[in-house]
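Tokens as discussed.
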């Protein structure tokens, strides 16, 4: 029964890491790429930087949560 729980834990950690990479990709690459095409009225570089920082922070948090799942035995 321990093998099944270990595999479930690994799959959950993989899923969380996949979500984390998607959040970082969409939040940072997407907003920086959109801003590189030219700033829109009402959207400043500071706002793009805040969105990018939040995306990186959320991605790192999800990654650390996935790592903690693997450490709990």
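Sequence:
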């Amino acid at each position: 029964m321990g093998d099944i729980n270990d595999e479930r834990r690994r799959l959950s950690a993989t899923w969380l890491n996949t979500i984390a990479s998607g959040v970082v990709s969409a939040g940072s690459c997407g907003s920086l790429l959109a801003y590189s095409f030219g700033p829109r009225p009402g959207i400043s570089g500071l706002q793009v930087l805040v969105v990018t920082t939040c995306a990186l922070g959320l991605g790192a948090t999800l990654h650390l949560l996935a790592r903690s799942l693997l450490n709990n035995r």
